[in-house]
Amino acid sequence: MPSDAVGSSGGPFAFMIFGTTFYVITQAKHASEIDKNTEALSFDEFVQDFIRSAGLSESAVQACFLQRLAKEKSGFPNPSGHPLGILIRQMQVHQLHPGVYQRALEARFLRSFHRQLRVEHISHITQAQTSGPISMYKWCADFFTRAGEYAYFGNTLGDIDPDFSKKFYVFDELSWQITYRIPKLFAKKMSAAQNTLQRSLKTYFQIPQSQRDETAWFTTAVEDELRAIGVSDDDIATIFLTVYLTINTNTRRATFWMMAYILHSPSLVQALRNEIAQAFEGYDLVNPSYVFDKSLCPQLEAVWLETLRLSSSGSSVRCINKDTIIGGKILRKGNKIMIPSRLLHMDDTIYTEDSSLFRPERFLDTGNRVRGGWWRPFGGGKSICTGRYVAEHAIKMCVSIILHRFDVRLTDGAHLPQGDEGIPGLGIMGLKKGEDTWDNVSARSFDG
């Protein structure tokens, strides 16, 4: 590595994996520089590399990312004549940012939570029919993945493969192998699950749209755009598997960590129940906007922010298109930049000397710690998560419903599980091997 590329404390440092050099950014001011430098530093190549590794054909890559579309085309507006790959991100914003489509999607999540979050629906995870020990990690994965699937694909995908969410769990836990281009010889389990999921998605998209149940606007609109440029069913399935991944991988994990931190802070359970009570009538959450309101539910908001701070292990990634100076160091063309959110979130000068501890009150004391380059749970700049608004609302809804509907008690000797910081990822960390926890779950009584 050239001496002018890395070196001084606080500046970028580098490592190599499978022949690619990654520069790691350790300072918020440098992260902000990178977010603004869209000329020399690009996110688009990373997306293309990822989706190629996921199995998208080269002809589809060319059609989606390198072929500019007409400005006057039918379908979703394209006044700048962007390729479809960029247009799809704009369509995600249209679906997921505050507005009619966002509210419709959140209503689907809530409908699924009301349906799935019942004791009788978790017997396939528990060790008893109506109550008993349950893997919180697998439970959150199960009901949240089913909710995301229903929100975007209605009931049809589940009808094609009732175990789709279970197979996705296997794939998702290993999907980092796609990002880092692990050879298939060493990624057989991930590849097998991926192939099964893609076959089910292909079957889904071969069913006429009129015969599918409750499909989200985004799903139908993107499919129409892909078919208009001649993308095959196999490639459509591959693209939507990556969509499915972005819908579910971080939300299910963030829900787990939020519940884990709450359960290991016993005083929070009743405090949060008291705070969210007015949003419920009997068993059901009838006023979700109440739990979204930071002034009405400040403790829920603080727990959400602190959970994101502690559990975010993803990195924003940029490809370097020309030599660039960041932090006084030359970052060479052809390599990649990583901005690891966890490194910034654990800075003691920003979050005090106890930054490794769960202390939601730090977000009750001041709001300035969620701004600026030190706060990156959703990435930043061009690659900032388009689904951050829906993710926040969906997670707050389901955590509120769990606290309201269930008594969840830690088993004897239970400890706060450890996240797997050693597995690279693009968002919320998973569990370290052997750290899965089993909690006792039973329905709360609402008599009187």
UniProtKB/TrEMBL annotation:
Belongs to the cytochrome P450 family. Its cofactor is heme. This is Cytochrome p450. It comes from the Eukaryota. Gene3D superfamilies: Cytochrome P450 (1.10.630.10). Keywords: Heme, Iron, Metal-binding, Monooxygenase, Oxidoreductase. Coiled coil: none annotated. It comes from Apiospora hydei.
